[in-house]
Design goal:
alpha/beta, Nucleotidyltransferase, domain 5, 4 helices
Length: 135
């Protein structure tokens, strides 16, 4: 017995599945993700460094912490390691409990190092921190 091939007269049924519903679905997904991406809030911290300001007499009574571009930290004229900033600040603050801290950051200093130095000052118990930059 010989099998006969059926010849369809409808040419659309021979060529496969219809892609139009899938394209509609993909387009709807694309629109959904574009619309929801607008409402996603990115978290971050915007920091505007202050311009260089001259030191006033009230700041001169406090402790000066300088962060240089070559990652050196100076506390009252001495180079200290980041881990020793807190101990030096506590020692100097014990001598002058009313004074604050002037944190001077070089314009080319890494922001992360400046923040870490400020964190060490806050861990030492001083919340009166004045920030300034140098060029």
């Amino acid at each position: 017995m010989r099998r006969r091939r059926r010849h369809y007269e409808d040419s659309d049924s021979q060529h496969g599945i219809d892609l139009a519903p899938m394209l509609d679905f993909v387009l709807n997904l694309l629109i959904f993700f574009i619309i929801t991406a607008i409402f996603i809030k990115e978290f971050g911290l915007e920091v505007n460094r202050p311009s260089g300001v001259e030191q006033t007499a009230s700041d001169a009574e406090g402790i000066t912490v300088s962060v240089l571009a070559n990652d050196e930290i100076w506390v009252d004229g001495r180079v200290v390691d980041l881990r020793a900033v807190r101990a030096n600040i506590e020692r100097l603050h014990a001598a002058n409990p009313q004074g604050g801290v002037l944190l001077v950051a070089d314009g080319e200093a890494r922001s992360g190092l400046v923040i870490e130095a400020a964190d060490q000052v806050r861990l030492a118990g001083i919340y009166n921190i004045t920030f300034t930059t140098t060029d």
